[in-house]
Design goal:
Layout lengths: L35 E4 L9 E2 L2 E2 L9 E2 L8 E7 L2 E7 L5 E3 L8 E9 L5 E6 L9 E8 L5 E5 L3 E3 L11 E8 L4 E6 L2 E7 L10 E3 L10 E10 L5 H15 L3
Antiparallel strand pairs: 1-17, 2-5, 3-4, 5-6, 6-17, 7-16, 8-13, 8-17, 9-10, 9-16, 10-11, 11-12, 13-14, 14-15
């Protein structure tokens, strides 16, 4: 797995059924400490409750927050495999995450269910100004049915058009590899698309989860889990974590 260090975290989910069945805890692979980790099942709220704070489970205290009550996504119970999800409304819902990193290698993984395949959806964007310098973005769709990954340095670098976006539950992974100058997107356990990536540090003091900069191109999806790492995962590492998430969420 490389020199990732050690990271272990119990999901609290047993046998993939949120407490039902044998009392066997499912745990993620014990490598690669994340920058942040948001799990819908870490929250205990009423249906349709607005979420002001999505508590970071990585141990880094990078809580995703929204001070404006009009911009808060909503929490819903028993959405997928008995587990809850956070619902983003394609209008203005988003969180602010105090995440920053000065490297150029990243992996982002999400368990989500896009509501529409035709709208543009930003899942994550580290841009903080109207310029595009030092920006890492993960886009589910650009509005033309393509999964995209973008990074901006002196000039934008985006992947070419990929496989069509599908609605329904899926695990998407974006890998930004500064060593090989390549960006890759995985759909469940398959590589969907790859393309050139100019290594680019985020240099951010915060990032947006659920839209682009300043609320642009908002997410239209249920989101069960989101994890960010300051490493570019190998294919085997992607498969390892995606398999854990699939065991928990029963996506495919």
């Amino acid at each position: 797995m490389g020199n990732r260090g050690f990271y272990g975290f119990s999901s609290g989910v047993k046998n993939g059924f949120n407490g039902f069945g044998p009392a066997i805890e499912i745990k993620p692979p014990s490598f690669a400490p994340p920058l942040c980790w948001y799990m819908a099942d870490s929250l205990s709220l009423a249906d349709a409750a607005a979420v002001a704070t999505w508590t970071d489970q990585s141990g880094n205290g990078v809580n995703a927050t929204q001070s404006n009550s009009s911009y808060r996504p909503k929490f819903y119970n028993a959405v997928k495999n008995g587990l809850p999800a956070i619902r983003f409304d394609n209008t203005d819902d988003r969180f602010v995450c105090p995440i920053s990193d000065t490297g150029g290698n990243y992996t982002f993984m999400a368990v989500l269910s896009p509501t529409s395949a035709t709208a543009g959806h930003y899942l994550f964007d580290s841009r903080q100004t109207t310029g595009n310098v030092n920006r890492i973005s993960c886009q589910i769709s650009d509005g033309s049915l393509a999964r995209h990954a973008y990074t901006y340095g002196a000039a934008p670098s985006g992947l070419p058009v990929g496989a069509p976006v599908t609605v329904g539950w899926q695990i998407l992974t974006w890998v930004f590899n500064g060593t090989s100058s390549q960006a890759l997107i995985y759909y469940n356990l398959g590589l969907s698309i790859s393309g050139p990536y100019a290594p680019n540090p985020m240099y951010s003091t915060y990032a947006i989860l659920g839209s682009g900069y300043n609320g642009a191109v908002p997410l239209y999806s249920d989101l069960g889990e989101f994890i960010a790492w300051p490493f570019a995962f190998s294919q085997s590492e992607v498969f390892s974590v995606a398999s854990y998430l699939n065991h928990k969420w029963e996506v495919f």
